[in-house]
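Thanks for the sequence, V.! I ran Glyoxylase, beta-lactamase superfamily II right away. Repeating your input here for the record:
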Amino acid sequence: MKFERQKVPQPVYGTVNIYRIGDTLIDTGHVTEDSRMAMADALDSGGLADVERVVLTHPHIDHVGGSQTLPELAALPHVVFEGVPSIITDFRRYLKRVHEEIQERSIGLAADRSAIDESYFPIDDYAEDDIQIGRVVGDGDTVRLGEYSCEVIHTPGHSRQHMALWHADSKTMFSADLVSTNGHFMYGPLYGDVGSYIDSLQRLRTYDANYLVPGHGPVISDPTKRIEEALGKTRRAMSGIKTAVETTNDRIAAGQLAREVFEATEETIGFLTLVVCEYLEYLEDENEVVISYAEDGIFAASS
Ligand SMILES: [Zn+2]
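Predicted structure:
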């Protein structure tokens, strides 16, 4: 299968991939100015000239940016998963809720959140009202990418509205943000879920893909190994958190768990505490821990 990968700048975490397959564009970068300029240049200079349709893998700010900031992209018909239209056509409200979740989970941390805060609200003028929803798809539907027919695979975990796209003939899986570059569970605001993430990785493994084509980083040519690694890291993180909670006499702060289990530094503690909170919510659902929300932080204790 032939596709063109372009890397688009995004704040804090490196670059995000967009893919061109014939007349189809997968994802549209971040909303920041750097990203918007890169997308605008590609539309002008030919890299994205004559693109006629957009497929969004999931509604995160680094994957829908061009749709929100470039009227010519907003006007193209968008193919999106169930639940995505209400998010991207009311994007400022969604971002406000994301911001609230991040603030709430950062209570008690001395971490500097300003870079993340700024990256979430770089502009006021989102094209949310102008985005054309061409088609809403669900699990098992067929989507055309250029000349290729692909199957929609619902892969929640990083985002409840996350889809992978499977091209059976070439055994190519556009896996977006499900399998991260470092193999760790990647926090996704509001709709992340560790349990669904494990289920989605296990489902992805059954396809025996030759390639995973991710939302960040280079194409993955050893999918089974990378999926196994991701599952292993998740299991280890889970048992590390459980053990740390069980061996604490009283209660332990989410930030402290990030330091002990993920070796968080001052630079990474903010993001890794969000990750810990996702694990804690999963463990609470499994009756393994009890979470308490206090004025000076989020804490976990044995159940
Ligand atoms: Zn994402």
